[in-house]
Each structure stands twice: as C-alpha cells, then as structure tokens.
Design goal:
alpha/beta; 8 strands; globular; 10 helices; 8-stranded mixed sheet
Length: 328
Amino acid sequence: MKLIKGATLLSIILVSSHLQAQSKIDLLFKPDSIRKIVEVLASDSMKGRFTGTAESYRAAQFIIDKFSRAGLKPLAGYPDYLMRIKDAWYNVVGAIQGKSKPHEVIIFSAHYDHVGTDATNPYPMAGGLAIPRKGDTIFNGANDNASGVSAIITLAKYFSLKRDNERTICFVAFTGEELGELGSKYFVERCNPDSILAVINFDMIGRKYNNYGHPYLTGVDSSNLIDILNKRLSEFNRNEYGRNFIDLDPFPREHLFERSDNYPFAQKGIPAHTIMATSPKDIYYHNLGDEAKALDYALISKIIKAIAIGAEGLVNGTDTPTRIGRIK
C-alpha cells in the first residue's frame, strides 16, 4: 500500500470536510426539517403563544435551544439569549460575530408570539374564513408566525455551518408583535441604528398568495434591498430564479410594511423589510385553523433557501442597501 503524501492527505481531509458540511446544509432546507420546527411551535400545547404566558416562555426556550445548538452566541448583557422587556415578556437574540466587519450588522428576524386562545385573543373580529374544528379554541399560529421562526432558525444553522460571514449576523425572535410590534420597538431603542445595515424580517411564509409561489417584499420603495436579493438569485441560477424571484408587494393598500417588526427599524432609517408569501386576506389569517397541517413546507423551504442565497453579499460585506430617511 502506497503512502499518501502530506499535502495530498490534507486535500482529501479538506474535501471530505467540505462535503460533510454541504450535506448538513442540504438537510437544513428539507421540508421535513422545517415542518418539525413549525409543529412544535404551533402545537396545541403551546396554546397560541400569547405574549407573557407560560406557553410563550416555553416557545422562547425552544428557540433558545435551537440557537444554542446552532452555535449562536448571546449578545453582551443577555447571557441566556433572553432580552427581557417586562415580566414574562422576552425577545430571543443570538449572533454570529463577523470576521473583518464585526460592527456592521445584518439582522434576520421573525415574531414568535401569536394571539393565544379564545380567552386571550385581542382581535374580536379574528376568525377568518376557514371553518375550524368543532370545539377548537386555540389560535395555533402556524403560518403566523411559526413559519417565520422556522426561517430564522434554519438560517442560523446555515450561516453557522458556513462561518464565512464578514459582518455580524444577528437573529431575533420577537415577542409582542401582535400587540403592536412591542418587542421590536424595545429592541431598536437599545441598539445603534447606524451599525445595522439591513433587516430581513419573515412573516407568514407558509401559504402562497398566487399560483407562482413567489415571496414578496414589503416597503420596496424604501431601499434597494429587493434589487440586491434578486440580482444575487439571478446570478446564482437564472433558470431557477429568473430576474425577479422576489415580487413587489401585491397588497399596497394593506400597509403591510407598517404592520410587522421591520417597521420600528425602518423608522430609524434602517433598510428593513418583511418577506411574506401569504395574502393578508388568507382564509387562515388569525384563524383557529392556522395549524401546521395547513402549510406548504416545500414553499417555506424554497423561500428560506432563496434568502440564504440572496443575502450572501449582505453577510460577506460586498452588498449594502441604500439607507433611508427616518420615518416619522
């Protein structure tokens, strides 16, 4: 048996290591991997994850476990990943420090709260058009917004495996969105807006609004982020993503830009937008039937993978969206 020279052996080890990492990355985007996250957060035992409840805290602990296993580090001052807003109200925050530009930050976010049960739901008109099971009292919030949380957990794992980010990447699961973006408002008042170069927020990505199944971006007139993402996707694979995989917001009269956790950041002049896939008039929106079984996991997987590819230049420091004026 011939001996393998040192340089050749090192090459084999590096290639093997790369293939193993790539295999793990491919598994992240499997619909079943995403489904497992959603099914936990949207289970009946979570009772709709209403802000301040014991079930909301359990959901936060589930997210912490995923962040920790992915190798995310807590932010300074929040050693347990929990940003306490008030009694039993918590944002969950973790980060991967940038290599050469650690003070430049890209944020991926999603809210993990929902409206709870019939006893806690703050929206008397909620209920949508879908017919729930008889006796059901739990607003599970699978699409709104366990789907979005599955995106940030998956991206946390993805970028942790890659470990090639020049900028710091921060992952935030917000509480209190359903009560008026309270978690994101609290967060943004405790950070330096100038250090945050972009915020990509995920909300309701589990059901498509049209036959094409493309996601859309809210507030596209506020920065050139959509152009950056679509250009990257088109360069990566024109056949799969075309020129404009991410659509313009098809529901401008719904004011979706102002209705999710991107908005408090945008008010500070930060390019901050929400990725969505679902119509605000969807039959399961704020409905008792918004359960894990009603989601399209192939769609969620497709969207998360697209954002991972499209955001490559944001995290490696080569793409920077235009700043916007502060919104009063």
